[in-house]
Amino acid sequence: MNIVLMLVGVLLVYGILQYIYKRKWALNLTVDVEFTTDHAVPGDIIYLKETVINNKRLPLPYIYIKFQLSKNFKFLEKDGNSRISDQTYRNDVFSLLYYQKITRRIPMMCKQRGVYEIKNAEIVFSGIFMNETMVKNSPNKSRIIVFPEAVDLSSLEVPFKNMLGNLERRKYLLQDCFAFRGIRDYESHDSMKDINWKASARTGQLCVNEYNETASQKVTILLNLEPEGMLKQDRLSEESISIAAGFAQRLIERGIEVALISNGCDIFCKEPVRIEYGSGKLHLNTINTALALIDLSIDMPDFSQMLIKQKEKDRLMVNAESVYIIISANKRKNFVNAVNNLVENPAESMWIVPYHYGMDYKVIGSLIPSLKWEVGYDN
User: Which one, 40, 113, 194, 268, has least CB within 10 Å?
Assistant: First the structure.
């Protein structure tokens, strides 16, 4: 009789616990998965933060947090919780007491430029007796933009310095020191003679005067990501984007206004990238963001036609004052002709030709001096 009562009691407890957990396990249970920074560059170590809160009296012996992440991140800890195919599928186990919050920070390395999101996480509970599967979807919104890695331009130091020399000569010959434009924060490239000492004393930090120029220092980067043949060359395209980032950084560090025109399309608006002239850290951030958002899988417009229309309709972005940096593995005749017709100071501009070993890098018919840039086949 006692055994029967014990069995009835056990079954009753089993049924009550199963009923309670089935109804209440997901109550006040929240999960948040987020990147700890909003931007990075390839090679950076960042952290993925998982926060799980069980805000009720019912403990949860084990739950699984599942979400998807791009495989362009490498987890640095010994990891048996991830499966990689087209994406990285993460599956982490948590055990929570009542009214408990658990936070984990998982280190990982960025491998490739782009924009990455974690849009959704799943909470999976196998029941208190592990005999059923219950799932709760947890909407999640976290995004990181991985800027392209700016390449080392030391191999182009001589032509780059020649370009800077031409731009500096324009500045000192044509700057109107009587046309005061305003005051801004001091940057490392500024001359000491331009410091406004009164404004610096008032604000507590160095400020410099800005003057209007009859012809300003301007460089337009033309980034053509069309392949020369029928086959896509994503490795060359990625290197081209990194070269553009390298030039933008070096030029903006020297106070030169930079514009960017590309036929690479933004992943969100599906339109070709176009950034007007600007300078300073915020403008560099704008250019790097635009380069990071380029999606090579989107069909690109013909860059030759883009340049022809640009010259006809928009003198703000295409003008005689600008020096041009063309970055293009594509050397087709129609593109060469479009560039020749566009650039009004070819001797001061340059064409960077990314190529793989064994490929032809010569630009036939170009008025602009070309420089080769060899790219390895490995990612």
Answer: 268
Tokens encoding 23:
């109804």
Sorted by sequence, the CB contacts under 8 Å of residue 121 that are 6+ apart come out as 31, 33, 65, 66, 67, 137, 138, 140
Neighbours of 43 (CB within 10 A): 10
- CA angle, corner 173, sides to 170 and 179, nearest 5? 105
Cα radius of gyration rounded to whole Å, the chain: 29
CA distance 238 to 296: 9
186-190, 234-238, 278-282, 332-336: least confident range: 186-190
Strand order in the sheet with 350-355: 272-278, 257-265, 218-224, 323-328, 350-355, 370-374
pLDDT digits (tens, 9 = 90+) for 231-246: 788 999 999 999 999 9
**For residue range 132-159, what is the model confidence (pLDDT) as tens digits?**
889 999 888 899 999 999 999 888 887 8
CA–CA separation, 321 and 327 (whole Å):
19
179 CB-near residues (< 8 Å, 6+ apart)? 211, 212
- 314 vs 178, higher pLDDT: 314
Strands 350-355 and 370-374: parallel
